[in-house]
Amino acid sequence: MYIKQNLRVTLNNRFRGFYPVVLDIESAGFNAKTDALLEIAAVTLKMNEFGWLQIDETLHFHIIPFQGSVIKAESVAFNKIDPFNPLRGAISEKNALEYIFELVKKKISIHKCKKGILVAHNANFDHNFLMAAAKRTKTKKNPFHSFTTFDTATLSGLIFGQTVLAKACKIAGIPFDTVQAHSALYDTMQTAYLFCEIVNRWKRIGGWPPNISHRKRNDEI
């Protein structure tokens, strides 16, 4: 009984062996294959001895637009990023991905997981840009699942009735500063807090570990 209960509070058991990594990308457009990736941040997660999901480590990089990339004026006006500002301290896509992939692989090993899974708000956008950059730069040993993601917009719609990040955070009791929004680091941190709250709230109301007897009763109705 002790062993069974202990397994239920490990991170690898919670998500079927997947290791969740919260990520946000700021770009110069919506086309992952042609438009420049300008900023990326990643937050790794951990689980304490009682099974509560928590923020662990953070990485954040400004990115040099790849050669031949498209930079759309309306996109950089929206996220307020000057791609050519020398004070950005930008690095190449490849270097940024190598740093992130190395950290994720380390965490996968520590938590005895089998694969990283991207967590993001409107995750399809970030996943597409991540995969396109990895392919473009030929960055090896991508630890992220090739198509599965956890989308906090969808989860927030279910739990809070809101799909906009700022509104979902507000209902969840998480501060959200619209002035800092659309910075990859800020959005990633708020998304990480939101994801942890969603997972932990489900645990608090008794949704995890699964109540087998309750499920059986529902099946009989």
Written description of the protein model:
The chain has helices at residues 2-7, 11-14, 73-79, 93-110, 123-137, 152-159, 165-172, 184-204, 212-220, and strands at residues 18-27, 37-47, 53-62, 115-120, 144-151. It has 221 residues and is of the alpha/beta class. The chain has a domain at 11-149: Nucleotidyltransferase, domain 5, CATH 3.30.420. The chain has a 5-stranded mixed sheet with strand order 3-2-1-4-5, sandwiched between helices. Mean pLDDT is 92; it is low at 1-5 and 217-221.
**What spatial order of strands do you see in the largest sheet?**
3-2-1-4-5
Which structural class is indicated by helix and strand composition?
A: alpha/beta
Radius of gyration: 19 Å
CATH T-level fold name of the domain at 11-149: Nucleotidyltransferase, domain 5
Looking at the overall shape, the CATH architecture of the domain at 11-149 is 2-Layer Sandwich
Low-confidence stretches: 1-5, 217-221
CATH homologous superfamily heading of the domain at 11-149: Ribonuclease H-like superfamily/Ribonuclease H
What percentage of amino acids are in beta strands?
15-25%
- State the shape: globular
CATH class membership of the domain at 11-149:
Alpha Beta
> Approximately how much helix is present in the residues?
40-55%
Major sheet details: 5 strands, mixed
Cofactor: Mg(2+)
Active site: 182 (proton donor/acceptor)
InterPro entries: Ribonucl_H (IPR013520), RNase_T (IPR005987), RNaseH-like_sf (IPR012337), RNaseH_sf (IPR036397)
Subunit structure: Homodimer.
